[in-house]
Amino acid sequence: MSEEELPEKISKLKEEKNAVILAHNYQIEPIQLTADYLGDSLGLARKSTELDADLVVFAGVDFMAETAAMLNPDKKILIPDTEAQCPMAAMLPAETVRKAKEEHSSAAVVLYVNTLAEARAEADVTCTSANSVQVVNALDEETILFGPDRNLAWHVEQNTDKEIIPIPEDGYCYVHRMFSPADIELLREENPDAEVLVHPEASPEVQKIADHICSTSQMLRRARESDAKKFIITTEVGLVSRLRRELPDKEFLPALDEGICEQMKEHTMEKIYQSLRDEKYVVEVSTEIAEEARKATERMLEISK
Q1: Best exposed site among 106, 112, 128, 172 by fewest CB in 10 Å?
Q2: Residue 212, annotated ligand binder?
Q3: Residue 112, marked binder
Q4: What confidence tens digit (pLDDT) does each residue in 194-216 have?
Q5: In this structure, are residues 156 and 130 in contact, taking their beta carbons and an 8 Å threshold?
Q6: Chain centroid to CA 153: how far?
Q7: 261 a known binding residue?
Q8: Does 137 appear as a known binding residue?
Q9: With respect to CATH, is domain 176-254 assigned 3.40.50.10800?
């Protein structure tokens, strides 16, 4: 089947099966254009609970599809490629969280949603890059175990009076670790009128030279609302495609052309078609883990309303 035929074939299958496609901002442009809803982790988690659908195809990485499965036990959640696994999420197994809780029994556990379900089942509440500061500051506890992203933990630390203990000690996103102050300063020199938008998964050194620290959804909002006409985007390049498409009168420069998440890019239009056609691969989370992890996720959604 040709690439040109796939959007129509996918559309027909969606109608036949009462299905929707959710896609993260880091997906390739054809998938972004085919998705019913495009967004960040928090936006897609919320959207999944509002859908009157039987099937949800999740074009994102494993932990995102797990979130949708936990929040929607009555829906069949599919991920087009099981190799779309977030390396950072794998850095925090549930056992590491349990051990940290034993060592810091009075601390609250706040886990980034970029964490697998079995670890999130050990959390008091989850958060996203968009609401991490809000979630931490809403808690009564003065000590917070925060994982798995060390750089996001640093960002929270700058915006709270609470003690933040990162778990693991050095969890990270390999894409956001690629960005360097030197690359951004060079771009800024060449484009002095550009605003620098930096994702909080980037290193503290990069965050310090940002004009604004933003999640992907916050970058979209800032770009829409700002008077600036040019932006240096310091996150995965997939977001640049969306920004250029939705705001054609503004200019968007990726901080690094090589800032690509290989796992996000496992999904293709062909795989989405096959996923819908064959109803594969079903995302399943055990009832016990789902129940505990759901509580932490629902508490996040309540705090961040």
Answers
A1: 106
A2: no
A3: yes
A4: 999 999 999 999 999 999 999 99
A5: no
A6: 15
A7: yes
A8: no
A9: yes
Partners of 164 in beta bridges: 144
pLDDT digits over 15-73, tens only? 999 999 999 999 999 999 999 999 988 788 889 989 999 999 999 999 999 999 998 99
DSSP one-letter string for 85-153: --HHHHT--HHHHHHHHHHSTT-EEEEESSS-HHHHTT-SEEE-TTTHHHHHHT-S-SEEEEES-HHHH
DSSP 208-267: HT-SEE--HHHHHHHHHH-S-SEEEEES-THHHHHHHHH-TTSEEEES-TT---TTGGG-
Instruction: Inform me whether the pLDDT recorded for 1 exceeds 70.
Output: no
Tokens of 154: 């640093």
Number of Cβ within a 10 Å radius of residue 123: 28
Q: Is 24 annotated as a binding residue?
A: yes
In CATH terms, 6-84+264-285 corresponds, of 3.40.50.10800, 3.40.960.10, 1.10.10.10, 3.10.180.10, to 3.40.50.10800
**Is 129 known to sit in a ligand binding site?**
yes
CA contacts within 13 A on the Cβ side of 235: 28
Q: Give 165-195 pLDDT, tens digit per residue.
A: 999 999 999 999 999 999 999 999 999 999 9
Q: At what angle do helices 62-71 and 41-50 cross, to 10 degrees?
A: 30
Query: How do beta strands 143-147 and 163-166 pair?
Result: parallel
- 88-172+288-303 CATH pick, 1.10.443.10, 3.40.50.10800, 3.30.50.10, 3.40.50.720: 3.40.50.10800
Any binding-site annotation on 155? no
